[in-house]
Amino acid sequence: MKYQGVINRYRPLIDLPKGTRAISLLEGNTPLIPVPSISESLGGGFELYIKFEGLNPTGSFKDRGMTAAVSEAAYRGAKTVICASTGNTAAAAAAYGARAGMRSIVIIPEGKVASGKLAGAIAYGADVIQIEGSFDDALSLVVQISEKHPIALVNSLNPYRLQGQKTAAFEICDVLGDSPDWLALPVGNAGNITAYWMGFKEYHQIKQTKLPRILGVQAAGAAPLVKGKPVDKPETIATAIRIGKPARGEEAVTAASESEGRIIAASDAEILSAQQLLASSGIWVEPASAAGIAGLKKEVENGSIELNGKKVVGVCTGHGLKDPNIITDNFSSPRTIKANLARLEEAIIRE
Q1: Sign of the C-alpha dihedral, residues 70, 71, 73, 74?
Q2: What is the pLDDT along the chain (351 residues), one digit of tens a residue?
Q3: Which sequence spans correspond to the domains of the chain?
Q4: Which CATH code for domain 62-158?
Q5: Which helix (H) or strand (E) holds 132?
Q6: d(CA 79, CA 102)
Q7: Span 6-59+161-322: which CATH code?
Q8: What are the C-alpha distances in Å from 329 to residues 83, 140, 272, 318, 324?
């Protein structure tokens, strides 16, 4: 079957105005990768899969929501889209805006965006403006300006973003034949956990699939949903989830509660350890994307989750190329040898 992107594949299940033309880069259809070695490292006895959203066109899960948000904006004649972003939303908005022939404006918090993400937004032609403030400050500004001017807001406050993002839940069910028993994923602005739960509930109603339990994972330095209050100055190496006041916070808490799951926090050290664990299975993700696996590992090791005989999906939201500095900054220069066979043998052959 020829793949047509998430809107055309799941159009009857996506709430978009009738007649909306899909602005698509053939997003979605990302792989569900079995990782038995990670399952074994956590005690074994269960099936673990990684939904690798880093293989979307701009390298993150944001493309699913952006195809829907930009398609709706184009349908009603918008000429400009705007977003606040810690990086991934910026790249997706710029790419889909370019695809639609629109102007894209991206507002970023000062010094808080990974270079790989900023480069994407610039490459796709966005007007990038940096503010002296946090992501939450940036989001407040774009909301205000979109209410005052005919500019389409494409952050996750836009309901069409969730319509696109929920298709990841559909894909998981289509591949597994049912929902997993547990879904573990990072939580930043909380749109993704909200969208997954929306998607699983819709498939439950339509196809009688079971409902999974959801484990949402925030970074310890940016964990307002765990602490029960906003974090004024969030700090974490996981830049994509460095958010102190999630726009979809209430919905995220509801998703965790209704699914009989929970939202927990993982330290930066735990997140980086999970990033390395995933890389050892050939899956390189940005630090924030490893948060779900970090939280799952933590819960299994402290005995809070029993997974024997279960099917578990960990969602990895962005590719490692999105935020490569965490790797390259800690990498020592490679060894240099003379260009001859004897020296090469000395360097690599082990008895």
Answers
A1: positive
A2: 578 899 999 999 999 999 999 999 999 999 999 999 999 999 999 999 999 999 999 999 999 999 999 999 999 999 999 999 888 999 999 999 999 999 999 998 887 677 777 888 999 999 999 999 888 899 999 999 999 999 999 998 999 999 999 999 999 999 999 999 999 999 999 999 999 999 999 999 999 999 999 999 999 999 999 999 999 999 999 989 999 999 899 999 999 999 999 999 999 999 999 999 999 999 999 999 999 999 999 999 999 999 999 999 999 999 999 888 888 877 777 889 999 999 999 999 975
A3: 6-59+161-322, 62-158
A4: 3.40.50.1100
A5: none
A6: 5
A7: 3.40.50.1100
A8: 29, 33, 14, 19, 8
Residues in the chain: 351
**pTM higher than 0.90:** yes
Q: Which helix (H) or strand (E) holds 80?
A: strand 80-84
Token pair, residue 154, equals: 């494409």
13: number of Cβ within 10 Å: 15
At residue 169, what are phi and psi to the nearest 5 degrees? Answer: -65, -40
